[in-house]
Amino acid sequence: MTDETEADLTGGVPQRRAKPALETIGERKLSPATRMMGHGYDPMLSEGSLKPPIFLTSTFVFPNAAAGKRHFEGVTGKRPGGADGLVYSRFNGPNQEILEDRLGVWEEAEDALAFSSGMSAIATLFLAMVAPGDTIVHSGPLYAATETLIARILGKFGVKWLDFPAGATREEIDAVMSEAATGKVALIYLESPANPTNALVDIEAVAASRDAIFADAAEKPPIAIDNTFLGPLWQQPLRHGADLVVYSLTKYAGGHSDLVAGGVLGSKAHINTIRSMRNTIGTICDPHTAWMLLRSLETLELRMSRAGENAAKVCAFLDGHPKVERVGYLGFLEQQGDARQADIYRRHCVGAGSTFSLFLKGGEAESFRFLDALQIAKLAVSLGGTETLASHPAGMTHLSVPDARKAALGITDNLVRISIGVEDADDLIADFEQALAAI
Ligand SMILES: Cc1ncc(COP(=O)(O)O)c(C=O)c1O
To answer: How far is the CA of 382 from the centre of ligand 1 (A)?
Structure first.
């Protein structure tokens, strides 16, 4: 929640100021997990309420006409410095502002925005950054709806795109970037790990390639990355050269499979460009969802840490099981001899996450017998919730993907996608053990 505006900015009406944020105790810099309990919210501005109330209002009252005019002078650029304070709920509200402040804390981002879904965050980012004739350079694969948005929807408006595979080397990235640079590259868009292959993108190599190839350009295209699978705990792309980080907050950040939301984090300048588009088209999340996310963020570190530890134990059990062909888990890259992906993992990630691919021995029949036998794990798409989920991409999320593309992505009939939750790890192992026995 932003500070109250100064009395002189509100036409002489004194306003109460929010207490400054607590960031340190003495020399000690407080961790994000601690700051999630209070950052951006001053109870004394809300009747002492320990938790922020849900602000269900569509509009906000100006203290006087002069303050209203000053606000719009800021919004329209007639007065430098932009506009502080709240005016209308399509633009922002107290719950969303607190959420945005707290989202930024995890990755030390200058600013952040909350959206009504991961896809509305991505769509707003694209609309803000890209014009007809521009090119988007992206890693592949991307989440299917993001690929549709670029190729089928933005493509209709004359936007072009070029892609490189997620695991590409610097040389391969350079080749695609050079080809794209013959036109105007408006945005470099990455997804790492990629959905559904879990392939990692070398963010540092992409940033180095961008800096080299656009060295003489007046403006370098920003690098945005979808960090839904590992963020904000296990991978922090702003530290590795990305300019913007995109989230489906529906997943680990929300974490209870009970809301849909999105987020974008980055520099103030980029975020302000995206904010203008969000203000225009109204893709902000609602106050209730923002409030739910504030609650979720208080336990984010606990939940993600436990889910990550559980996944490591479950994958250790599954690895080498006689009914299992292979476990596609980031924690196994080294031992599976994937030197290049293991190198990216070592440089970029501090944890392997809790979403992985299980390749069973057999095909669709074996996968279905396994899925139908699960008793704790629920048969559902999505990931990052407190409960363990399992699904069959070839028969569900990727059913309509052409066979050749499915083969290229490694989406085979014996692939089961699993997102591990925060249950007891040994209970989960017992569930997987009996489901494997039922195949
Ligand atoms: C990597 C990734 N990005 C974006 C999205 C879209 O997010 P949402 O469903 O919140 O719109 C998803 C959804 O599964 C995803 O997995």
So the answer is: 8
Mean pLDDT of 287-304: 98
What pLDDT, in 10s, does the model give residues 214-245? 999 999 999 999 999 999 999 999 999 999 99
Distance (Å) from CA 143 to ligand 1 centroid: 7
Kindly report the backbone phi and psi dihedral angles of residue 226, in degrees, each rounded to the nearest multiple of 5, phi listed first: -80, 115
Does the pTM of the predicted model rise above 0.90?
yes
Q: What tens digit of pLDDT does each residue of 385-427 get?
A: 999 999 999 999 888 888 998 888 889 999 999 999 999 999 9
CA nearest to 351, candidates 326, 364, 333: 333
Residue 135, C-beta contacts closer than 8 angstroms, at least 6 positions apart:
159, 160, 161, 162, 180, 183, 184, 185, 186
Alpha carbon nearest to ligand 1 atom 12, residue? 248
- Ligand 1, residues at Cβ distance < 6 Å: 117-119, 143, 191, 195, 226, 228, 248, 250, 260, 262
CA pair distance 399, 351, nearest whole angstrom: 30
